Amino acid sequence: MKALFAFFLALPLCFGACAQEAAPSAASEVLAKDLREEILRTQATVKDMHGRQETMPVPMTVYRPEGDGPFPLVVFNHGRAPSAKRASQGRYRPEMAARYLVAKGFVVLVPNRIGYWQTYGSFDPEYSACGPIDAMSIAASDQVLATVEFAKTLPYVDASRWLVAGQSVGGLTTVATVGRAPAGLLGGINFSGGTGGDPDARPGRPCNPTATARYWGEIAKNATVPMLWLYWENDKYWGPDFPKTWHKAWVEGGAQALFSAFGPSGSNGHFGLTEDMDHWLPVVDEFLARLGFDRPAIVQPPKPTGFAAIDAVDAVPVRSSNKAAYSKFLDMAKPRAFAVSTQGGFGYATGDYAVGRALGNCQRYGKPCALYAVDADVVWKPQ
């Protein structure tokens, strides 16, 4: 079930192709204060499939924990919208996944690669014409490596310990990066990775899937760190079988990867990163624990406290102007959660990972928050 969000300040949020959490316009954009979200820039030099070379800026979103660090790093990579939608593919903000990773103790850098957002235009280093994917893979992973080099200049980042992750073409970028065995890399997480999908014209039938199997099998011999691959049965970009073929090529090529196959999620399992957190979070958590990152980070619902009846709107510790939002919450389907801030604000969510989303929606404005209600129970304790 796709989650429904509400904030005590209006924040437009939409999901584009490749399950991106797309940004609102710069004028209305509200950064996540509790994640210390900011936008930094570096430069990268890349080539396209024709050998044309350009040096262009790579804007990146930063999410980081409280404190000075230095913290280990995750470079998280976005997907690629179908051609008709790429012009409107804005800044990639995988905020809910970043919340989990920041809670684990990572700095998360999210590069908007060349050919997207502010550099969208005539130069597209990730265009492959449904042919070999070597050039696009190298161009994308070059930008991951440029991001890591930039991270070495940030005093709060320990770039000697880093992971790479991403969704869709960002998952392809992740596999390509692991296949280059860069220094300091500890592992990779591939969410629904691949290329060449068209969910409208060819659902489940990407163009030239053998090119992906060939290239991944070829670079697997260089890979030295473990990977986690996560795919959903009803992925309309790749279908259920091609990812298994790609994984087979990767493993037979000499690399390590645990393949996690999930059942159907929503209308298109390609969006599992954002729509099926309840299922993938424990799997990723176990993978990270094996790498030594075992800090608890998955939000768990507290036990009922009996502070008030679930429908006692007047008891909710929010500003009077926000009590109407709680009444709206009571009409929502379960699973659902409502969080309150120390300043009378709120956040709520229904559907997948409702407790984590509600808490994040509340605290992103920089005020401490706690869960007030989960499903039909009040779980809040007065401070």
Notes on the protein architecture:
The protein has helices at residues 95-103, 134-151, 169-178, 209-219, 242-252, 272-275, 277-290, 323-330, 354-363; strands at 4-7, 14-15, 21-22, 38-47, 53-63, 71-77, 107-111, 157-167, 185-191, 227-232, 258-262, 336-341, 346-350, 369-374, 377-378. The protein has 383 residues and is α/β, with parallel strands linked by helices. It has two domains: 1-12 and 300-383, no CATH class; 31-290, Alpha/Beta hydrolase fold, catalytic domain (Rossmann fold). The chain has an eight-stranded mixed beta sheet with strand order 4-5-7-6-8-9-10-11, with helices on both faces. Strands 1-13-12-14-15 form a five-stranded antiparallel beta sheet. Helix 2 crosses helix 3 (169-178) and helix 4 (209-219) runs parallel beside helix 5 (242-252). It is globular, with a radius of gyration of 21 Å. Mean pLDDT is 92; it is low at 1-27.
Largest sheet: 8 strands, mixed
Q: Which CATH architecture of the largest domain?
A: 3-Layer(aba) Sandwich
Structural class by secondary-structure content: alpha/beta
- Mean pLDDT over all positions: 92
Oligomer: single chain
Q: Classify the helix fraction into a percent range.
A: 10-25%
